[in-house]
Amino acid sequence: MTSSGVQLFGYALALIGVLGSVVATTMVEWKRHSYTENTITSKEIYLGLWSSCTVDVTRNTMCATYKSIFHQPAEILATRVVMILSIMLSAIGLLLATLGVKCTHCLEPDEKAKSRVAVVGGVFFIIAAVLALSVTSWFANTVVKSFEFSESYIPSYDRFEFGNAVLVSWGAAFCSLVGGCLLACQLPGICREGPVTVSHPRVDGFARHHSDYV
Questions:
Q1: Contact indicator for 17, 29 with CB cutoff of 8 Å
Q2: MF terms per GO, please (predicted)?
Q3: What is the Cβ-side half-sphere exposure of residue 140, based on CA atoms within 13 angstroms?
Q4: Residue 90's closest CA among 46, 64, 61, 121?
């Protein structure tokens, strides 16, 4: 695959990662719980970073936005902040990568500067992906640890497990990480295009000296 092809593939993966992070951050299924005591009180509860939803036995869904951030668990507050920071860094990386990829006409007179801008964009994607992976893994670990098993003193209706938003966030962060690495590897000297020419000044000098006597 050529250098421009690697750039485009990395850019596409990073773009998918940005969109996936936005979707995961807005999803309500970060924590989920199904509680069934009988056919009348059966319900499902979903907790997101911004709101919560309850689904009863008739599949009627009621959602409510959090009124105060001070009454939310620490994992929700921390994940919200870090995911927003990750998206902001990804947005900066997306802008820089758009300017730096070879298929655009920005910064065309200076190819080295254009390549460096793409590399910086890739670094932003890598940092954003590491942040998203770290906070999502920490969130999932916190939910798993809080899930008590048979020896638990916590009632079953208070037990939660991580939901689909965690999986979406993991997948998006992985795409951003791979895409950022592919963009960052385009730094001159890491991914070369074409063969490297080596000059031999002594041989050239000998040839010129020999030609003077011919």
A1: no
A2: structural molecule activity
A3: 13
A4: 121
